[in-house]
Amino acid sequence: MPAGGEPRGGRRPFESETHGDARLRVLDTRFAVCGPGQRDHRRSLRVAPERHERRLRKADAHGQELRASGMSNRKAGTLRALAERFLDGELSDESLARMSDGEIEAELTEIPGIGPWTAHGFLIFALDRPDVLLSGDLALRRAVQHAYGFDHLPTDEEMLQVAERWRPYRSLAVSYLFASEKGT
């Protein structure tokens, strides 16, 4: 990192004039990665339970639909388990709104196929939580490497050290850093 811990160019990544559309959906790696112009992922969890039930029945009747979309059986199983938690009332928009970030991470990581990276992505991009870091994300590590002049991919400890200065807006910094990598 350059002397003084400042990013190259003297400007922090989240101080750029525009950040583009850095919204991600947690489907590519667990739930989804969604780019500009695609359907807003937050709506998918807020539809009526009857629609979820119909979708689950349809998935049972036509199990190949998810496979045909390119989703692995494991990812489809993860999505199904998550949908079932919403159907059973174990999870709801209201319960998620009342939970802390740590409680949500604990609840989500109980579902097979959902780990900390996925839970953190869900907190940032689906729930708009302001102070979450995806320190293990390779694209974010590359963005920090470029923005802060590291000659190597930053370690977890280095990521945490750099991101400490972003509190309480680490999620915003993550979005700007992801956007900065799209332009390179």
What would you say this structure looks like, in words?
- It is a single chain.
- 55% of the residues lie in helices and 0% in strands.
- It is an all-alpha fold and 184 residues long.
- The protein has two domains: 3-20 and 134-182, no CATH class; 27-126, Endonuclease III, domain 1.
- α3 packs antiparallel against α5.
- The longest helix has 15 residues, at 73-87.
- It is globular and about 50 Å long.
- The relative contact order is 0.16.
Concise description?
With 184 residues, the chain is mainly α.
Question: What structural keywords apply?
Answer:
2 domains; mainly alpha; Endonuclease III, domain 1; about 180 residues; about 0% strand
Please name the CATH topology of the largest domain: Endonuclease III, domain 1
Biggest sheet statistics: none
The mean pLDDT is: 74
Shape: globular
Gyration radius, rounded: 18 Å
Q: Could you state the order of secondary-structure elements as H and E?
A: HHHHHHHHHHH
By CATH, the superfamily of the largest domain comes out as Hypothetical protein, domain 2
CATH architecture of the largest domain: Orthogonal Bundle
Name of the level-1 CATH class of the largest domain: Mainly Alpha
Summarize the topology:
Blueprint: H1 27-31, H2 41-44, H3 49-61, H4 64-68, H5 73-87, H6 93-98, H7 101-109, H8 116-126, H9 138-148, H10 156-164, H11 170-182
Helix pairs in contact: 3-5, 7-8, 9-11
